[in-house]
Every structure is written in C-alpha cells, then in structure tokens.
Design brief:
The protein is about 20% helix and about 30% strand. The protein is α+β, with helices and mostly antiparallel strands. The chain has two domains: about 120 residues; about 70 residues, no CATH class. It has an eight-stranded antiparallel beta sheet, covered by helices on one side. Helix 2 runs antiparallel to helix 3. The radius of gyration is 17 Å and the shape is globular. InterPro entries: DUF2889 (IPR021312). It comes from Pseudomonas mandelii. This is DUF2889 domain-containing protein.
Length: about 250
C-alpha cells in the first residue's frame, strides 16, 4: 500500500536573549532546510536551503525569506503569512519557517512531526499526524472534505480551513491541523506522473508558479521519491546539521 509521508524536525539552540532554530522538512516531493536567528524576540537573520524540489527555480525562493527579517517572534506558525505575500514564497519553505519561528516564540527545544496520508481508495483516505512520537491527529477524508472526527467533521480542506482552525483551536492544535491539511492536499500529487510536466503551471500560487517565471521553472525529473516503506530515511541526512548553529 502506497503512503505519502512527511517528516519535520525542529531543534532550537537557545541563548541569553539570543537563539537560533533549525528546521528541516522532507517528503515525497520536497527536502528543505531553514534556520532562524533571533534576538530579544525578533528575527535577526534567516536562511533556507533547497536539497530536493520539483522545479528548477525553487532554490531561488530561499532569498525571499529575507522579507521576514525583523518580524516579532510569534507562537502561531501561520503568522509568517501576515509578514509577506505567501504567493511569492516557496509554500514549503514558508511553512517550515513559520514552524521554526513558533518554536522559538514558545521556547520549544525540539519537535518532530510525522505525517502519513494513506493511498486513496474511492477518493477516501486516512490522514495521520504524529507529534513527538504520539499520534496527535487522525482524519477520515473524502476528496477534500474531512468526514471525522469532531470537531473537524464537515471541514473542507480548500475552503476557509485556516481561518477556522486559527479561530477555533488552540495554537498547537491549529499548527498540527494546518500541517496535516497541507500534506493531505499535496499527497494528491501522487496520483499523477509529475515528470510529464515540462515546467511549472502558471497558477500564481507560489514562487515558481508565478506567471512571469513558470515557463523557466523546469520540472526536476526524478525528484519524486517514495517513502512508503522507508520512513526512517526521512530527514536522516539532516540530523548533524540540525545540531549545529551559526
């Protein structure tokens, strides 16, 4: 049985009023790293690295993270979307940066998220999020509609879910729900041979898919991997990097 998997690892290196958080993300389609330095509650330096990505221009989006310099640390990961236009960022680098910023704000020293989205059968799947080794969230999903459990019943992943989660759930529950939402949606890409694409689509939803550069954002053929039976390989090569600091 095919399973979409994503792992997110976050390690904070606190100091006296100053600190650094390192975060990494790997799934079937992506492998990114982000580091955030902060001083007295403000982002003072930031950087990203693209190790595996779907389009040739994705690494350029690392530079876009500089737009977050000077933002106040915020316990809500989604807060980065108030600091910059997400459609001109790499979606996954920005998500990862939000998680890093929230970890810094909360004083979280270490966190691991493992997300598993089962193969769709008759358009249905089970989506699971494991936080620090504990199964934290499981949804039964039909298309883009969550069928259960409460309080997620009837929520559509594509229609106002972020607003609902941020207004209804506590900050960590909302963080987990929005991460599981992202993965449930992108896991649908497994149903297609993405290598048939020549370049990114002009959806204007992210950096590489902006109309002015989509045709130059060439498909990185062979960049999709399958971790269905190799979960331990996710972020394995990042562990030494996570424990370093600038």
């Amino acid at each position: 049985m095919s399973v979409f998997r994503r792992r997110v690892d976050i390690i904070a290196h606190p100091g006296n009023g100053t600190g650094e958080v390192r975060a990494t993300l790997e799934d079937d389609f992506h492998h990114f790293r982000v580091w955030v330095c902060h001083h007295e509650g403000e982002v003072t330096a930031i950087g990203g690295e693209a190790l595996r990505y779907p389009y040739s221009l994705c690494p350029q989006a690392c530079d876009q993270l500089q737009q977050l310099l000077g933002m106040k640390l915020d316990r809500i990961a989604h807060s980065v979307t108030r600091q910059t236009d997400a459609s001109h960022q790499c979606t996954h680098l920005l998500d990862l940066t939000g998680l890093a910023v929230a970890a810094a704000a909360r004083g979280t020293h270490q966190r691991r998220y493992d997300v598993n989205i089962g193969q769709r059968i008759a358009n249905r799947t089970r989506a699971t999020l494991i936080r620090d080794g504990n199964e934290d969230l499981t949804w039964e999903v039909n298309g883009t509609l969550i069928e259960g459990p409460s309080p997620y019943c009837g929520i559509n992943l594509r229609e106002g879910m972020a607003r609902w989660a941020l207004n209804t759930l506590n900050e960590e529950a909302a963080e987990a729900a929005l991460l599981l939402r992202r993965c449930t949606l992108i896991s649908m890409g497994r149903a297609y041979n993405l290598d048939e694409q020549i370049h990114a689509a002009t959806t204007a939803l992210c950096y590489s898919q902006q109309p002015e550069r989509a045709e130059q954002a060439l498909r990185m053929k062979g960049s999709t991997l399958d971790f269905s039976h190799e979960q331990l390989k996710l972020c394995a090569q990042d562990q030494e990097w996570l424990r370093q600091r600038h």
